[in-house]
Amino acid sequence: MLDLINALILGIIEGITEFLPISSTGHLLIAQHWLGPQSELFNIGIQAGAILAVTLIYRKRLWQLLTGFREKANLDYGLKLATAFGITAVLGLIAGKLGLALPDTVQPVAWALVLGALVMFWAEHKTELDAPETAITWKVAVAVGLAQVVAAVFPGTSRSAATIFAAMLFGTRNRSAATEFAFLVGIPTMYAASAYAFMKQFDSGIQENWSAFTVGFIASTVTAFIAVKWLLKFIQTHRFTGFAWYRIVLGIALLALVPTGP
Question: Which residue in 60, 122, 189, 205 has a CA-CA distance of 20 to 30 Å to 68?
Fold first, then answer.
C-alpha cells in the first residue's frame, strides 16, 4: 500500500512540474529523498504520462498541422518544429555518446535552478506582458532545439523553461506563442527520449511493480493535464517572474535540505 501512495505522490509531483518552468528533476530529487528512490522505468513512466497529457491538450493543433500541411503557414510551422526536433536529436545523441551530461545530483540541479531563474528575469525584462503574437522564425526554431540539448546536459534547467525562454529571447515576444511552440517541440522530443530510455531498460531486463507504475502514470497524466491547462490561461495575464523566484527558493532548499554526499 505504501508503494502505491508513494507512486501517487511522485506522479502528482511529476505532473505538476514537468511542463511548468520549475524543474521536475529538482522536485523529484527532494521527494525521492524522503520517499525513497524509484526505478528508472517508473521515472520514465510518469514522464510519459505528462507527455500524453500535453498531447491531448494540443490534439486539435497537431491534427491541424498534420492534415493541413499543404497550407503554407502549417507547412512552415511544421518544418520549424521538425528543425528544432532534429537539432535536439542529433546534438543530444552526440552529447550522450561523449558523456556530456551532469548527474541528477543536488549541486548541479540546484545551481541550474538558480541560474535558470536569472535567465527568466532577463527574458521577462526584454518582453511586454501584452506583446502581440509574433511569428516563429527560423532563428527561434534553432534556439529552441539547442535549448533542449542544454536542458538535457544540465539537469534542473527545466526543458520547458529552457525552450520557452529561448523562444522569447530570440524573437517570440508573445508568451502564449513561445509556450505553444516549446510544448509542441517537446512532444516528439520527450516521446523519443522516453522510448529510447525504455528500450535500454528492456534490454537490461525489467523487474517492476506494475501496480505502482500504473498509479504513477495515471496520476502524472491527470495532474499534468490540469497544470498545463492552468499555465496556458495564467500566462495570458501574468509574467513568469513568480516561477523564477520559486526556482531560487527551490535551489536554496535543495542545497540546504538534501545531503550532497553519497
Answer: 189
